[in-house]
Amino acid sequence: MRGCPTPIRFVTRNLSDRVVTVYLVGAGPGGVDTLTVRGFRLLERAEVVVHDRLVDQDVLALIPSGAERIDVGKHKGAAASQALINALLISLAKRHDCVVRLKGGDPFVFGRGGEELLVLRDARVPVEIVPGVTSAIAAPAVAGIPVTHRGIANGVLIVTGHAGLDPEINFADLCHRGVTLVILMGVEQRETIARCLVGGGLTAQTPLAVIERACTPGQHVVRTSLGRLASLDVTPPAVIVVGAVAAIGRPSSSE
Question: How many Cα atoms occupy the beta-carbon half-sphere of 200 within 13 Å?
Answer without folding.
Answer: 19
